[in-house]
Sequence to fold (400 residues):
Amino acid sequence: MAESAPKGTIEIAKDVFWVGVKHHNRRLFDALIPLPNGTSYNSYLVKGASKTALIDTVNPGFEGELIGKISQHTDPARIDYVIMNHAEPDHANAGQHILRMAPNAKLVTSKKGKEAALQYFDVDESRIMVVDDGAKIDLGGRTLEFIYAPWLHWPETMFTFLVEDGILFPCDFFGQHTAQGEFYADELGNDVTLDLAKVYFAEIMMPFRKPCLDGIEKVKKRNVKIIAPSHGVFYRDPSIIINAYSDWAGEKMRRKVLVAYVSMWGSTEKMVKVLAGALVEKKVDVRIFDIPNSEVGHIAKELVDSPVVVVGAPTVLGGAHPVAAYVAMLVKALRAPTKYAAVLTSHGWSGGAVKALQESLAGTKIEILGAVDAAGRPNEKDVQEILALAEKIAEKLPPE
Ligand code: FEO
Fold:
């Protein structure tokens, strides 16, 4: 991975510097999640009167850029603490390089973070300082408090709170993937930021809704003035993202149906249009995605607050078209809060898509409201069945 050109740092409070990296041309995360706007790895240098801490680091390949930015504010050899909120290499990998440069520095992390650091990085155990939930480190006139936040989104995750300045560093929690020039949500636009944050929530945090609610309660107990996550822009008004996360993790459902379909020769698409039209007449918010032409992140985002998911697919070789099967798998893998599902399928000489899609949702608590399977083009009987299915779906949704 090539290093990007060095860029400036910014001071988010007195002697608190963003020294991270904006990775504009990264297009995939975890070899799965599309990054249309790139991403950033936010690392923060906090200087106290007597000690200096670096909070989270950067992705492999950007160590030089990080060190160059730290050097603008202090000699990296004089860092006392490298805080590892989370062991995933996009934030933690460069920590081992800093420890080599800073002979007295300790890697500060949770109990489980220590296990992960030894597992993933070339770090001597004697360099690791384990902190308990609620522990504090005095940097000289400013205090770092560590807040355990397990499963957001790995077992070892914690937040760091800079008490006197009211700055929360929650690592992945509250993040968004963007490498745009802005640093604050109000500069990027709060709506744009929340849109990105919702995609991010769907892909990273949605499977961990209960830990999210626990994390939010811990944040609310502190006098947080700025939230500075380790991806994307920072929030000068923390309530914007705290309220959004409360809604998303709290499964605040809308009168909304997500329809994700694939069609080879138009039959499934016709069925989808009949269903969508009937639902719209019933004042249902319908989000339709033609799967092969859609970003998976956008589909995931709508899973956050759609009580009903409809999957449309033709039968292919005795099963469901693979891209529709992928969406059904996504619902399951992301542990989406989906309550109900329905299936629209079409086939040529033999069916199989209905059974395959139902099987891919097995093991969830999702109730299948119905399935309509057309032989070739949907006929009048199929249309009537779809309209009846629309009635059934609408009855399950919250009122307008
Ligand atoms: Fe951004 Fe879980 O790493």
